[in-house]
Specification:
The structure is a single chain. The protein contains 6 helices and 17 strands. It is an alpha/beta fold and about 250 residues long. The strands form 5 sheets. A 5-stranded parallel beta sheet has the order 2-1-3-6-7, sandwiched between helices. The chain starts with a strand and ends with a helix.
Length: about 250
């Protein structure tokens, strides 16, 4: 599993210890980890890549004055206030707060914090936290096995899956992927929003814009033919989505 992690921590020693623990965990569990360390509110709020991270470890008690190169930068926000701004900016990842005090436990409600860890953190507490994260999010991805390589694709990025000879072609928002497998095998791993529309095609109903006769129109401007056998299940799935939108 590929995990992009951000760390907001003004103490270099504590940040270094956390980075070491996370990297050791990733190596032990065979996960691909990328970590970005931020020291100040401006560092993280001004980096557009920060909102694309999967997981954020945020210190709560940031120093009021942080020395950055040769200047002193005032910090009038604590970690919770910074995370509130990150949410407003579009950050949708999980947030784990780091604190030396238990008094903040209820203050993360407005940013949907998933956990609080008391300092000093240990390998055991971080391991448990990251194990819970992967158990929760492992189901967010479909894993393509090709030769000796494994690639994870977010389910919500898959538009359609069609049979192509002995392979399956997976059409996503970021490109096309092929895998030597059957459509029946892939179908067993798909969440409920994926519905068979033809003997040779599965579609993600979240990308359907309309159904005209026996033709499905997708948001990427492509169309798919609905087989007679699958017409009722497609129509019912579309009607269910319409009802759930009210």
């Amino acid at each position: 599993m590929n995990i992009k992690i951000a760390i907001l921590e003004d103490n270099n020693i504590q940040a270094g210890q956390l980075i070491k623990i996370i990297n050791n965990w990733g190596n032990n569990k065979l996960h691909a980890i990328s970590i970005t360390h931020y020291k100040t509110s401006s560092d993280i709020l001004n980096d557009e890549n920060a909102i694309n991270c999967n997981l954020l470890f945020s210190d709560i008690e940031l120093e009021k004055n942080l020395r950055k190169t040769d200047t002193i930068e005032p910090c009038d926000q604590n970690g919770i206030e910074i995370c509130i701004q990150l949410r407003k900016n579009g950050f949708k990842g999980d947030i784990i707060f780091l604190t030396a005090f238990k008094d903040y436990v209820f203050d993360g409600y407005h940013v949907q914090a998933t956990n609080y860890l008391l300092k000093p953190v240990t390998y055991e507490t971080i391991e448990k936290c990251l194990n819970n994260y992967t158990a929760l999010h492992q189901a967010d991805y479909y894993y393509i096995h090709k030769d000796k390589n494994i690639k994870q694709i977010p389910y919500n990025s898959i538009i359609s899956i069609s049979r192509l000879g002995h392979d399956c072609c997976i059409n996503t928002t970021s490109g096309l992927y092929t895998e030597r497998t059957s459509l029946q095998t892939i179908e067993k791993h798909m969440p409920v929003q994926f519905v068979r529309c033809h003997k040779s095609c599965i579609i993600n109903m979240n990308y359907v814009t309309s159904l005209s006769g026996s033709t499905i129109h997708l948001s990427n401007k492509q169309t798919q033919l609905v087989g007679r056998t699958y017409y009722e299940s497609i129509k019912n799935a579309l009607l269910k989505m319409v009802r759930n939108s009210y």
